[in-house]
Amino acid sequence: MIGKKLMNVIDEKSLAKLEALNNEKVLKIVNEFVELCKPDKVTVITDEKEDIDYVRQKVIEIGEEAKLSLEGHTVHYDGFFTMSNHDQARDKTNTRVLIEKGEYASPWINTIDRDGGLKEVLDIMDGCMKGNECLVRFFCLGPKNSKFSLLALQLTDSFYVAHSEDLLYRSGYEEFNNMKEKADFFYFIHSAGELTGNPPVTKNIDKRRIYVDLKENRVLTVNNQYAGNSLGLKKLALRLAIHRSNNEDWLAEHYFILGVHPKDKNRVSYFTGAYPSGCGKTSTAMLPGQTIVGDDIAYLRPWRDGYAHTVNIEQGVFGIIKDVNPNDDPVIWNTITTPRETIFSNVLIKDGMPCWIGDGRDIPDSGMSFCGDWAKGVTDKEGRDIPHAHPNARYTVRIEELSNADENLHNPDGVPVHGIFYGGRDSDTMVPILESLDWDHGVFFGASIESETTAQTLGAEGIRKGSPMANLDFVVVPLGKYLENHRKFGNSLEHSPKVFATNYFLKKDGKYINGMLDKLCWVIWAEGRTHGDFDAIKTPFGFLPKYNDLKTLFKQYLNKEYEEKDYIEQFSIRINHLLEKLERVEAMYNKEHNIPEFFWEILRKQRSELNQLREKFKKDEISPFEF
Description:
Blueprint: H1 4-9, H2 12-20, H3 24-37, E1 41-44, H4 49-61, E2 66-67, E3 73-76, E4 95-99, E5 111-113, H5 114-125, E6 133-141, E7 150-156, H6 159-168, E8 170-171, H7 173-178, E9 186-191, E10 195-196, E11 201-202, E12 209-213, E13 218-222, H8 227-230, H9 232-245, E14 251-253, E15 256-260, E16 269-274, H10 281-285, E17 291-294, E18 298-302, E19 308-312, E20 316-320, H11 330-336, E21 342-345, E22 348-350, E23 353-355, E24 366-369, E25 372-375, E26 394-398, E27 415-424, E28 433-435, H12 439-447, E29 450-452, H13 455-458, E30 464-466, H14 479-491, E31 498-503, E32 507-508, E33 511-512, H15 518-530, E34 536-539, E35 542-545, H16 547-558, H17 564-571, E36 573-574, H18 575-589, H19 597-617, E37 621-622
Parallel strand pairs: 1-6, 3-21, 4-5, 4-12, 7-9, 9-13, 16-27, 27-31
Antiparallel strand pairs: 2-3, 6-7, 6-8, 10-11, 12-13, 14-18, 15-16, 15-17, 18-19, 19-27, 20-26, 21-26, 22-23, 24-25, 28-31, 29-30, 32-33, 34-35, 36-37
Helix pairs in contact: 4-6, 12-14, 12-19, 15-16, 18-19
């Protein structure tokens, strides 16, 4: 049934595309939100090139993006820093999960009563698309024709959002057309709201809301443009997928997917990895000589070969561009500095070329930037220098444009997971790489990830923040249920992945004791462990690499001599610091109810065995050679 309001704003061609799906739920949603949001026009976009090209052309016409000098390059601005209503990062304060009375409300994320929250956001959305065109989009979260994939319906009045989604996600109109369970999909309603200025940016940021409705498998987001708030298919959809997966038998995780290719082995082994911000996620996913399947979100399911298989639900990268330069990130640099379809956001533009913080080039004296017209020496209201580009400036590009894209990016069967990396950041506790004792211990590794702040960020160095599976912001189910689901998932597999903890940030006398590319050797060692190529040293805290194996790898992969003194410095067990870490982990999980007993058993056993080691050796730091 087509509502009166919809009939008045949709043309025959778009109406035919909508009706061809024969999907009552889709029609109901479109009717409901066209009636509420009141767009001037509704256009249905399918998988056809003509429709996709319409989005690309219109986003330029209306000024949400502007063409740059290189073919395919465009720039978008989310808001202006000098205005009080800037919109250039995820809004954690106004991102809330709608919770019905009596249901679980996480202490780690923002929640709001469902009835009150719905009334608030729907009132704000009343008329939010007036004067604008609403796009009806269909996407597939994961490869097409895949058991892994979930479908998503998107309504948005932002052509920038729609264009970004074409780079980041697989089109899904035909998937909707062929679906058997017509009501089984997520849906996302977004409006940038009233726009102001040139380029047009959201005006009413004070009424920005991003509400996640678990009951209806939907996200309602209004008065924003920044992709982390507006692109429902990204981290907002991750919350819905975590809720669903933890009530079924699979995992939805904040993982990269990396293909590891050891020299002279004629094989590829796939690893996933979860790292909090600033802990080495991108540098691990983009290691030289390896291939990338995905950099952000993965679904994992048990597979018929006895392994867990995983897919990247996305097909593109929405990456932080800060510090991307030809020396440290040659693959990304070569991709985004050559002609191809690429969206830059919140960077400086000078003479049609984008510039960003840490790109290794001379900073122009002036240009267009995230604060509007920018010039050297410009300050904000507090007298602080405004950088030429935003620290959270981004690039958006298809993974297939990267020279290291893995051939299995679109494989509907996914790839088998041989290992999982959980990356933390601390200056004095964890060794560079450590293998878990078993799967349950690996879940404990993930549950006890910590990230250490720096003096530059908070004014006090060494503050540790827990970040289970680097996923805490998105876990909308009880943390105990989430951990138990991980435990059951791995133990149900014939070949459960090996699990490794990494830490690239050990320091001595204030200086890092690992080189930038040392992580390549840690990763190759982990890959070898999944195939039985290397022995290891067993400790109460996990398996350590042997010195001679690392010495060989450093020579083979980095042409570098790895000295015994460096090995001892990096891989000694620091008992006091490990015991302090256990105390922090215990304190964090005591805030939650119903944490599974296996977690507490591991914690108690590790504490006991570390104390026994200290008693045995009569010291707090034990060399790996002493085990």
